[in-house]
Give the backbone structure.
Amino acid sequence: MKLMRCRINPSSRTVMNRKVRAVLVVGLLLGAASLWAHHGNAPFDMTHTVRLQGTVRDFQWINPHALIHADLKDENGKVANWKLELGSLGMLRRFGWTRNTVKPGERVTAEGFRAKDGSPYMCLVSIDLPNGQSMRGSP
């Protein structure tokens, strides 16, 4: 009995290598984007909370974190458009949130950790809604 050697066509190996490389590159790019986007609580002063009142302008139910934009009055009485960052959508659902929990025009009281650089940016810990309900915004 004579053994036959299986030969692989070099051009098919090259095509397979290109496909594997393409999949790896796409995977790395997608993974890198999510790592870059997640910053944790580094921008916020986690030692002091602020409690501000104002009017919701926009609520964005988006990944990686939901956002509320609101005109809030600071400790000095000055109104500014604040960006309130909430937790992930999965976590918010467990806290009872939906994409309709907060609506533009509603008066709210927001409590959270202010940005270290003093900008109108907050890690939202809780928000008091017009119906008297208080909702957690992050763990």
